[in-house]
Amino acid sequence: MKPILIGLLASLFFSATFVLNQSMKFSGGNWMYAASLRFIFMAPFLVAIVAFRGNLKPLLRDMKARWKTWFGWSFVGFFVMYAPVCFAAEFEPGWLVAGTWQITIIAGLLVAPLFYKEMSTPDGTVRMRENIPWRSLPMSLVILVGVALMQWGNAERLSVSDILFGILPVAVAAFAYPLGNRKMMEACKGKLDTYQRVLGMTLASLPLWLLLALVAFMQDGPPSAGQTGQSLIVAVSSGVIATVLFFAATDMAKGSAQKLAAVEATQSGEVVFALAGELLLLSVPLPPAISWAGMLLVVAGMIMHSMVSGRLPVKPAHKAAASIQEDAISGHDRPASL
């Protein structure tokens, strides 16, 4: 239950992204600044935190030794995740982007077979491919139906281009985030803590964010003081606090695709928090009734995920080993994340 509560708290801080991206859009800010400044501002804060904990040198050594791994999965997990979300904010309200983002819950289930886990058995270490946690799929489908209803409720207000550019980029980002996060977590093999991993992925993706900021500068000149300040708030709230909380929650749940799916389902709280923030700060119109029904389904799916995860039994070691051997015999063997 603790990882789920931490994940839900992370969703509160993550929601600042959707609200402030809308605020920047209304003030005429370039979406590329909204994306790049978050990570540029994140870097100093994270360097200070990791250095204070005395863990900066081990991280830099690891990044130097495996720079291709760090750059590759940071590109997927941070750049491919966040740039499309900021782009989509140009075409849809923040709460709707947050709702569409919940596709990441389904994505988290579907990417499971791309990962491997080592388990100790009486016959030695067995490496097996993760299975899709089918038990979580019904709850995730409830969330997906909720997302569809939210989009349907706004279909009359949005043009075809709004729907196309507002949905597809977020869908891509929704798959990139769990893939990059888990692959990098897998690559670190428990040798680096959450703060180190977030900083490493931020530093590895920094050249891409600087390039994006350069393109924005060539288009519109320097960012306004308002956009700079709001980007700083997003960097601290969503980039540092929320990311560290969420990565910490996934660390607690690692080794169980079912529990990881439940932690990732807590991100559905962003829909409610983003809508509340926009209604209070930006005076956006109230969503139609069908969109409210969609939001309720999203939240219901998250609650069901949490309840199922909390009831998961813990297998004794000998039963777990037997289960692994049965899976291997049935053809699910695994030889041996963003």
From TrEMBL:
Entry's transmembrane regions: 31-50, 70-89, 95-116, 137-153, 159-177, 198-218, 230-249, 261-283
Keywords tagged on the record: Membrane, Transmembrane, Transmembrane helix
InterPro entries linked to this entry: EmrE
UniProt feature coiled coil, ranges: none
Pfam families: EmrE
Keyword Ubl conjugation set for record: no
Protein name: Multidrug resistance efflux transporter family protein
Biological source species: Paenibacillus thailandensis
Lineage summary: Bacteria, Bacillati, Bacillota, Bacilli, Bacillales
